[in-house]
Predict the structure.
Amino acid sequence: MGLYPDMSYYYLSQQTIILQYYLYPLFLSSLPMSTYYELINSNLWALNGFVFLKVHSHVDIYNFMDNTWGGRFDMPKEMAHSHLGMVTDGRYIYVVTGQYGPQCRGPTAHTFVLDTETKQWRDMPPLPVPRYAPATQLWRGRLHVMGGSKENRHTPALEHWSIAVKDGKALEKEWQTEIPIPRGGPHRACVVVNDRLYVIGGQEGDFMAKPGSPIFKCSRRNEVVYDDVYMLDDDMKWKVLPPMPKPDSHIEFAWVIVNNSIVIVGGTTDKHPVTKKMTLVGEILKFQLDTQKWSVVGKLPYRVKTTLVGFWNGMLYFTSGQRDKGPYDPTPRKVIGEMWRTKLSL
């Protein structure tokens, strides 16, 4: 079993559901690792992303009803390619800040909104300063953006801003400062359910551009993955909730809401204690909102990070991201574009 037994991947609790997966032959073989998505009606909208030295500058649409990809169109040239903050109200997709270009290039503060009915883009007021992968959500008529990494890509940011929006338009000219998030950093799930805003998992620190590299080649720094869970209450104060079963990051769009539960798929966890290499997650985690308890409800065909997740007609879907090297090696290897699904009943 070598250096990577990672037996937690094979652990199944008494409440774990044994899932049977189906791999669809219709997929985008080039769907990038750092793609971002929103689920609107029966469609999954996948935006941008990059695979190492190649960026994707377009939108792809997956139709759950006939299991096909289609409808590709371009994004604005000034828009970030990865590490986006993104959320939808069911028609409009708000895209905030992010990294412009592949590898570990710099961020942009540009913000846009997409009308999914007309497929037209519109500018929004830029974020006060650029951020990488901030937690982003719509809550009580305002677009909230918080945390992420600062301009050097590594330093955790605590700032929290919001701006009033309606029907794809900003109702204010400037972003308003809100209460800072207790712990900064990128790659966390940000969920609004039952009129509460939750921020789940994430990490402090990330890869940085190698000094002097003409292609901004990524150089690893120390990152700390955490299991923290926070909720913003009616008094606009952060409340600490029970932690995740294990630290988990790279889950910004790897979550869905199913029957009063937040379901989170894959991600990255603590690095290997000996090799210090990144370790991927292969479990499906559930946070029961009424009891505020976590559980493991199943496992994936393989470990995967930065995946895109949807739930449609009783089926849990995931696509894109970066998978592991094999059953006994949880380090990242291949960028995938295939679509998997399984029946999930909670």
The chain has one domain: 7-343. The mean pLDDT is 88.
